[in-house]
Each structure stands twice: as C-alpha cells, then as structure tokens.
Amino acid sequence: MARREVKMQRVAIAGLGPIGLKVMQALDQGIAGLTLAAVAVGNPSRPRPELERLARKPAILPVAELEGAADIVVECAPAAILRGIVEPFVARGKMAVVLSAGALLTNWDLVETAKQNGGQIAVPTGALIGLDAMTAAAEGEIRSVRMITRKPVKGLLGAPYVVEHKIDLESLREATKIFEGTAREGAKGFPANVNVAAALALAGFGPDKTMLEIWADPALDRNNHAIEVDADSARFSMAIANVPSENPKTGRITALSVIALLRKLNAPLRVGT
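The structure corresponding to this sequence follows.
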C-alpha cells in the first residue's frame, strides 16, 4: 500500500512569550508535516538567543507580513492585537490557532470571515480539561455550566476589572471572590486571565449562559479551575491546578496543548474529539 503523502505546511508564530517559545522549539525539533517559517515579536531589535539555537532559523517579520509567509498562524500575543494576526489568515482560507479565546467574543465576525473564505479558527484545549465532554454534551441539551477560577494574586494584577473597581489585591490575606458573572463579562474584565472560560463557553453553552466566578487567593501558587456541567447526557465535574509559566497569567500546560494540537494535524492516529 502506498504511503500517504503529507504536504508540508508552513507555520508562523505571533509572539515569543513562554508559550510561543515552547511551540517554536517543538516545531524546530520536528512535528510531522509542519515547518517553522516565520515569527513575529514585539521588539524585533531585541537579541533573541533562543532563535540562534534553532536548527533552522525562521524569518522575523511584522505581524502584517506573516500571512504571506505561512499557511498556519499560532497566536500567542496580547488579546488587543488578535484581529491583526487572525484576519489575514482566515480571509485567505488558512488556519489560525487562537489562544486569546476571550478576544474572539469581541471579534466574532472573524468566525464569519473564516466561514465565508474556507478558513478555520482552532482554539486549543489549553489550561482546561474536558472540552471533549463539553463539545459532546453540546450536541444534546445543556442545562447549566459554572466555572470557578482561583488564581494567585500576582496573576490577576492589572486586569481591567481589578483596576476599574479599585480592588486592592496585594492587601488580601485570604481567598476573596472578586468577580461573578457570565463568561463574556469575565473575558472583557480579565482578558489575560480567563481564556479558559471563553474556550469552555465556545465549546458548549455559550458565553452568555456559562457562569464564572474568579477568586484571588494569596495562598495559591497555581491557577485552579473547577467546572460543573449539567446536561441531558451527563452530569460531570472537572478540576485542574495548572503550574504557572514564566508569565503568571498563563499555565505551562497551555503551550503543551498547542503542540499537541499541531501534532494532530497530520497524525495517523487522533485520539479525542
């Protein structure tokens, strides 16, 4: 039997923070059917020793030029520049892997752009577990979804909601609930913190029905997420405690989730929905 031919796809990475660096290194070490073509960084003139250690150095390009150099873009950048990264790719029928899932809720027309042009937006599982179960439950009837996020104080500093409501996180001595509302409201108030809630909402019950609590806990050193789902097919609970990366707002497992998604694109065996 003839071996299936795998067409090489060029990958661009927008942002070389803790997640982008891990994905870049994995691509350089080898992922079937993929090659690292380009990266975009916030400060191109800053020395990047990580790039010098790569076996094959990618082009360093402005965000606006990534689409011309790649077939897939991995967005690992601030939510504020999501559109400039994703739109050129999906408008030309290409794939965008999006980590700033919360920003999709305020840029929803990008999904329609992808639909009209044969593009695709892929949101990795990231710091969550159970998105497969959530997606499956959404094929039936979901009655309620509640997510409770507990984070170390330093991971919440500077969030727009915290600033707007003048919440003094650094004076907290015990776990304190600082937000309760919908996933859509949470994504707006905590754009760098609750991409997990946005991904959960997009997988199942929607951003206006998925309920979210955010707690700041000075005793924690990990990002904790607990989820309760009630559906006609099953009732299930999920909990995960993520080790933060060098960026306290992001768990280490997020980068690994992106790498796992990229490996699935051309894998002979795919496990999970």
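The radius of gyration is 19 Å.
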